Amino acid sequence: MSVVDVAAVRGAVPLSSPDRLYIGGEWVTPSTGATIDVVDSATTETFLRVGEAVEADVDRAVTAARAAFDHGPWPRMSHAERAGYLRAMAEGLRARVSDASRIWPRESGVVQRHSLGLLGKVPGIYDLYADLAETFPFTEPATPTAGGEYGLLVREPVGVVGAIVPWNVPMSLASWKVAPALLAGCTVVLKASPEAPGTAYLLAEVAESVGLPAGVLNVLTADRGPSEALVRDPRVDKIAFTGSTAAGRRIASLCGERVARVTLELGGKSAAVVLDDYDVDSAAAALTGAGCFLSGQVCSSLSRVVVSRRRHDELVEALAARYAAVQVGDPFDPATQMGPLAIERQQTTVLDYIAQGKAAGARLATGGGKPAHLDRGWYVEPTVFGGVDNSSVIAQEEIFGPVLTVIPADGEDDAVAIANDSPYGLNASVFTDDLDKAYAVSRRLHSGTVGHNAYRTDFGIAFGGFKQSGIGREGGVEGLRAYLETKTVILDGVPDPAPH
Asked: How far apart are CA 36 and CA 334, in angstroms?
């Protein structure tokens, strides 16, 4: 595709009011009038300016959400009524998938054709939670054990939610917070990343179009200071955060000071354990496709590969061949298999980790720098290190880029020990043709998700991590529970009609 054609595919940004904030059901001017420049990661040019929220704007958004929860109709609707709005939002988002696919690749570097697949699944998140309106036990009988005749367990909305999302997969990660919170009856302040706010604005436009009551969903873009004001605000009952472990520690400490509810989906350094019976080239193919998706900017990426020492060199060679063949280029070019990193500082960070890997004596099998054929954009070559010591920096710290570390192990028990020797525990996978062995090893891995013969996560079931990879779960029924408080009700008789 020519440069002209790529520019044509990008087109104009399909947003109505990017210089505003969506608060209380209206598009309002930021209190300072300031804007944030959003940079196209492939061209390094500003392609969008959005309104910048400061503490006063956060206060206004929280006030709107608090009023909508305390005095508005939303928490007082039935779950079925709220589900109707969720289904309408799903339809609205289906109509905007193409629009979103013109924004997300520019912000985060995801290949556009890949973005269409993932964005196409976002409406289903709202449908999933709408379906739970009919099946989840929001109210169920419970037999009293200490007096009283009739008991109930009632699950009620936690209140006002502050949802904070990162720049890598903003639309999906926002929706896994917003959809269950809305079904539960909560109101939400969604804080978008300054680097990738576009799809959050699109979500606000959809909420407006379906007539979501004022203050139920508020959307703004802010940097760290205003974000901390959101976390500190005593009117916010729960914080749902996805981002770095360092930021998660700070949020957890602030929520702990006021005993606010919190869900944290944090970093990862996930292990792929390749057992001796599994085909090396099949493992290399699976790991390359997953490792280069979104340029490795995925918290659950299988970035550590643990394999027996006798097969180590063979696997490194297979991985290096496949990584070297990945076509790096503009996300809107149909020939591209991997785009740039999202922001310049991330490119700098990844290149610094690569330098540390070299200095520590790891064997650079392929990659290791900026692609020679690209003179602009935040690109890094797909990179494979072999002979990595699991105690080294590149094996222990989250790089968040297309860098794979291959670690030799002395047998299966050592491989499991190496996989577990990490401060993180977000994702893992076992590569073996023996199903019973796969299950047995999966139960030994300290990880929130364990896949088999592939990179796998499933928000439809539950997603989250052990150890420093987070607190709580998102997705599925478990993700709904995070937005509910459980109340015990004990009565001296059975009301008519009996709640159900």
From this structure: 30
Which two structure tokens, joined as six digits, stand for 208? Answer: 């407006």
Q: Which residues of 284-294 are buried (b: 16+ CB within 10 A; e: fewer)?
A: bebbbebbbbb
Whole-model pTM: value is 0.96
CB atoms within 10 A of CB 246: 10
The CATH architecture annotation of domain 8-266+469-487 reads 3-Layer(aba) Sandwich (3.40)
Q: Which residues contact 323 (CB under 8 A, 6 or more apart)?
A: 288, 291, 292, 365, 366, 367, 382, 383, 384, 402, 404
pLDDT at 3: 53
Give, in order, the Cα–Cα distances in Å from 424 to each of 144, 199, 266, 434, 442. Answer: 41, 29, 9, 26, 16
pLDDT, residue 1, reads 45
Query: How much is the pLDDT for 9?
Result: 72
Peptide bond preceding 497 in cis form (omega within 30 of 0):
yes
CB atoms closer than 10 angstroms to residue 205? 19
pLDDT in tens, 312-338: 999 999 999 999 999 999 999 999 999
Alpha-helix runs per DSSP H in 185-327:
198-209, 224-232, 245-258, 280-291, 309-325
Residue 323 exposure: Cα atoms within 13 Å on the Cβ side: 32
Pick the CATH number of 271-458 from 2.30.36.70, 3.40.309.10, 3.90.550.10, 3.30.750.24: 3.40.309.10
224 burial class (0-12, 13-18, 19+ CB within 10 angstroms)?
exposed
What does the pLDDT read at residue 498? 79
- pLDDT value for 8: 66
Q: Where in the chain is the domain with CATH 3.40.309.10?
A: 271-458
User: pLDDT value at position 24?
Assistant: 98
pLDDT score, position 11: 78
Instruction: Please report, for residues 31, 35, 37, 158, 212, the alpha-carbon distance to residue 18 in angstroms, rounded to integers and kept in the order given.
Output: 15, 9, 11, 30, 19
Residues with catalytic roles: 265
Looking at the DSSP bridge assignments, the partners of residue 429 are: 272, 451
Collect the ranges in the chain with pLDDT lower than 50.
1-2, 4
How far from 389 is each of 52, 196, 305, 363, 421, CA to CA, in Å? 44, 35, 12, 11, 12
